[in-house]
Amino acid sequence: MVTKESVNIKPTMEKGKTKDGKEYMKIRGTEEIANLLRERYIKMGKKVSNLYKDKYEDDTWFFYFE
Description:
2 helices; alpha+beta
């Protein structure tokens, strides 16, 4: 559920590649916002992985492009 507090957080997105060449999208923000952005990519016809929480940064999520 997107709350008023989560709407005030400005998410940032960073596209990158792992050292193995796998593309990913890193999103800094709430889990709800990260999932909405992931779903937007799915609606655009992109194949993406599940959403994962970053081990090293708080409030950071990522998914891989398949």
